[in-house]
Amino acid sequence: MRLRARLHRDFVFFKLVQAMEKIGKTCFIKFTPSIVAFGAASGMLDEDGGGGSEHVFREYRIESVTNNEIYVEMRVDELTHVLRSCALATDVGMKMTGRASAASLSFTIKTGEGSSRIITHDVPILRVMSREGADHTKAFEEPTIPDPDVHIMLPPLDILRNVTSTYKSLANYVILSVNLMGEMTLITTDGTMTILGEEDGTNGTQGRPAGLQPTIRNMTAKAQVETVFKNLLNPVIADDPIEDLDNPEASVHPQNERRLNRPHEFARAMIRIGDLQKVLQSHYIKPHRVICCLIPNQAVVFYVYLQDVEDAALTYYIPVAAGY
């Protein structure tokens, strides 16, 4: 098998590696003529991402007896070590060397324009896998889930990271509530779906100014902390236009049904704060936008779209700790 390429100057390849760093110690990489994909799994949090090979590599060449596809497992920290050497790089080449039992990805890094210097890093490949072996890892397998009830664009990740950092010292879980009026709340919890303020039907959000408004309320011996975001964007679902909702025989997307009949109603899910923090580590790659999709009683899915790379995105799948 052969694999050779030069990396684009924006180093999308390493941005994808960097996003994997907080998920697990190893990652899986899938190389095909048209796609470069990464996969990782850690406990209850799954992540996969990638993009068209033309956005990641130039002068890309791949050959193998398995439909020109190559699957490898590598240590993330060794790949990120190479990334640090690329800060002043003017050109980075990559090729696969050695036999399958002792293969490596070799990176040749050229720095400086005039008196240039060349650095070579050989990163060992833990294993080269067959297509069947890669399928067995389930690293590239997207979970089968129903259409989400609500899609909402997240506020700046740095703000959310500060919020969850505070939450982590108070609780292990957070209740995520979103609706189709651009509202999102995060509420700490001890592992139950109890939300203070629900007895009056307000969910604690009505009558507050737009923007970020954290509050603290007493709950028995502990405190329940709630952070509210407003004026967020709810992406429109193009596959099922809203104008088709008056057709009773049309296949209606759950979000469009909710938008028409109950846009103020919150969809909720309880997830581990630690899992949410791992998703928010993607702020390092400076994403263009991050969309949260909530499927009550099942999962929360996050789509992280890379800046200036149309086809490159990361997908994080977090099963709920409890439904509502």
TrEMBL record:
Q: Where in the cell is it found?
A: Nucleus
What does the UniProt keyword field contain?
Nucleus
The protein's matches in Gene3D superfamilies, at most eight in alphabetical order, are given as: 3.70.10.10
A GO cellular component annotation in the UniProt record: checkpoint clamp complex
Instruction: Give the source's domain of life in one word.
Output: Eukaryota
**In Gene Ontology terms, what is a biological process of this protein?**
telomere maintenance
Q: List the PANTHER family.
A: CHECKPOINT PROTEIN, MITOTIC AND DNA DAMAGE CHECKPOINT PROTEIN HUS1
Question: According to its UniProt record, which protein family does this protein belong to?
Answer: Belongs to the HUS1 family.
What's the protein called, per UniProt?
Answer: Checkpoint protein
